[in-house]
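Hi, here's the filled form for the chain we discussed.

Project: internal
Contact: R.S.
Residues: 324
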Amino acid sequence: MRLDRRDSLLHSALGRKEMPIILFTVLVYAGFSVMAPNFSTLNNAAVIAQQITINGIVALGMTIVIMIGGMDLSVGSLLSLCGVLAGMMDNAGLPVPVTVVLTLLAGTALGAVNGLLIVKLHIPDIIVTLATMNIFRGIAVMITRSQWITDFSSGFLRIGSGKGGFFSVPILLYVLLAVVFAAGLKWLPFGRLLYAVGGNREAASLMGLDVARVKVKVYMIDGFLLGLAGLLFASMFGSIQAATAATSMQFQTMGSALIGGANIFGGGGSVLGTVFGTILLGMIKNGLVQIHASEYWLDFITGTVILLALMVNLIQIHRKKGGV
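And the returned structure, exactly as it came back:
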């Protein structure tokens, strides 16, 4: 009986859709461990965990956006705007808790702007967020006059501090959010709504689901996460410059979600897959530094992995439709 149960559990684990990305991540880890002796140390693992927290938090939001068939190209700009707002509020002497709350509210409101523009004007997500990508970045540059925001208070800097290793605030926040999102998608009605809306919007509307409201809520959650990520970005690095902060964030986080199995056409996504996609890209970046490879290889490898993930996406969709 016990053997049958173990066999059943093993078969269930190996059959998970996230298993390919998990196995590939393990292989990449093993490869870099051979090429760079310091790569497999516990200290370096903590460094990687710290480095991926911001991308990981943003990738969670990108995952649910992709799940409903959307796309957000404005994530880097919205993060930058929230980051500079947080920095400016701290420089103005606002208490850290007030700065945190106002930054999260700002991110949520800006996310709502994206969602409302999409549903009210009936413009594709990619077009709206392409526009707001430039608008948000432009606002951030204008209010800072393209100057670096620095000289943060010690309380503000503690938010993004790496002290504590695996138990630092950014890592704990990321783990907590990942658990909440995974549980929400599996057990909460709103999580099931995302799969329904992303899988077939017309059918969801015929069933009486308010697709527009769901979409606005998703972009608000996305904005909330970006507000938190902007806050962590400014605190973690101790400075932020509006024109250059998180300029490639949309591609990195989209890559994490797609590599983790999110369906580019909507209706499919996995928090566990996205987490491992984020870990994989973080390990590749760290590993390339360890073996003294050119940083340009990171862009090449990231682009290649995203392309492969899209190809796998398309193959899976084709098979579901009865193709060969």
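Let me know if anything looks off before we file it.
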